[in-house]
């Protein structure tokens, strides 16, 4: 509903009641990230990971926050940790692919986007981003194919 300040208040109350509730830190971090407060988001995701080192969403979301801050090496590290915990986490491959792409590592990006698509063939973002990576490499036919698939999925 877009009431992220209220959500942050509620998550803070939950944390005050139970400071070991990792998911509350992770959810509050997500609210901060949506508001563009990436440092606070990263702080909360880190706390969630300290409490629950297997909380995949906290690694993925912290990786995404690092992407938004332009810290692609940290994003790659976080997404790789999420993948180590759950190799079927499609979002982790998409985010890590984006970080690789931003570093100019197009082959690694394409590999990650392809893994995300293999896990969930309905992730339009993975096709779109893979198409952009193909285009950056000059592989225009592959780029056009992915662009078409991405548009088709986005319209559904």
Helices and strands, with pairings:
Elements: H1 4-17, H2 22-34, H3 38-51, H4 56-69, H5 72-85, H6 90-102, H7 106-119, H8 124-136, H9 140-154
Helix pairs in contact: 1-2, 2-3, 2-4, 3-4, 4-5, 4-6, 5-6, 6-7, 6-8, 7-8, 8-9
Structure description:
The protein is mostly helical and 156 residues long. It is 79% helix and 0% strand. It has helices spanning 4-17, 22-34, 38-51, 56-69, 72-85, 90-102, 106-119, 124-136, 140-154. Helix 5 runs antiparallel to helix 6 (90-102). The chain is elongated. The model has no long low-confidence stretch (mean pLDDT 94).
Strand content: under 5%
Average pLDDT for all residues: 94
- Radius of gyration from CA coordinates: 17 Å
Decide which structural class fits the backbone. mainly alpha
Helical run tally: 9
Uncertain segments of ≥5 residues (pLDDT<50)?
none
- What is the number of strand segments? 0
End-to-end Cα distance:
23 Å
| Major β-sheet profile | none
Compact overview of the structure:
The protein is mainly alpha-helical. 79% of the residues lie in helices and 0% in strands. Helix 3 runs antiparallel to helix 4 (56-69) and helix 6 runs antiparallel to helix 7 (106-119).
């Amino acid at each position: 509903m877009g009431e992220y300040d209220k959500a942050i208040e509620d998550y803070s109350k939950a944390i005050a009641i139970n400071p070991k509730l990792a998911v509350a830190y992770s959810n509050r971090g997500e609210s901060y990230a949506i508001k563009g407060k990436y440092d606070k988001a990263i702080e909360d995701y880190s706390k969630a990971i300290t409490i629950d080192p297997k909380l995949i969403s906290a690694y993925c979301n912290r990786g995404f926050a690092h992407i938004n801050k332009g810290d692609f090496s940290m994003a790659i590290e976080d997404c790789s940790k999420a993948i180590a915990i759950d190799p079927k986490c499609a979002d982790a491959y998409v985010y890590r692919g984006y970080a690789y792409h931003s570093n100019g590592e197009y082959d690694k990006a394409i590999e990650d986007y392809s893994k995300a698509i293999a896990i969930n063939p309905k992730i339009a973002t993975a096709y779109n981003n893979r198409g952009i990576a193909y285009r950056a490499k000059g592989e225009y036919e592959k780029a056009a194919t992915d662009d078409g698939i991405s548009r088709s999925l986005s319209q559904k």
